Amino acid sequence: MSEREVSGSCLCGRVKLTATVAARIYGACHCGICRKWGGGPMLAVECEGAPRIDGGEHVRTYASSEWAERGFCAHCGTHLFYRLRQGGFHALPLGLLGDGGDWRFDHQVFIDDKPAHYAFANETANLTGAEVFARFGA
To answer: How far lies 59's CA from each of 32, 128, 129, in Å?
Structure first.
């Protein structure tokens, strides 16, 4: 496996994912949907293309907005991916990939939706919701 290839699995092990990441960086999404989905900001890794999925018959998706959907294991509920319906963008939750690797916290999106009751100490690039929509055309 190359430095840019990552893999992980759901809690019950029925779904396994392998993906190529653009870089060994991750970001935090503070949008209300991510916070509701996971109980806090989503820490995610951007993929180059769609991840390869073993056990896809156990994957369910939820259309969380007009432009995106989220995948999860139908048995254990593990969050598996976030993807845009158009354009091929895929992100995997960082925790899905285990503790290995030399990941760097690089950016935060929907920073204008972040509640005041928490803050990360890392210095990162920060994008508002409007800047994210302009960048991805959603």
So the answer is: 23, 31, 28
In 3-state terms, what secondary structure has residue 95? helix
Taking residue 68's Cβ as centre, other Cβ atoms within 10 Å add up to 18
The domains located in the chain, with CATH, are 5-136 (2.170.150.70)
Helix (H, G, I), strand (E, B) or coil at 126: strand
Q: Cα dist. 80→3, 6, 13, 64, 129 in Å?
A: 21, 13, 12, 14, 23
Contact 8, 92 (CB under 8 A): yes
pLDDT tens over the chain, length 138 residues: 577 899 999 999 999 999 999 899 999 999 999 999 999 999 999 999 999 999 999 999 999 999 899 999 999 999 999 999 988 899 999 999 976 678 999 999 999 999 999 999 999 999 999 999 888 765
Hey, which bits of the chain come out as E strands? 5-9, 16-20, 25-29, 42-46, 52-54, 59-62, 68-73, 79-84, 90-93, 104-109, 125-127
The DSSP output letter for 21 is B
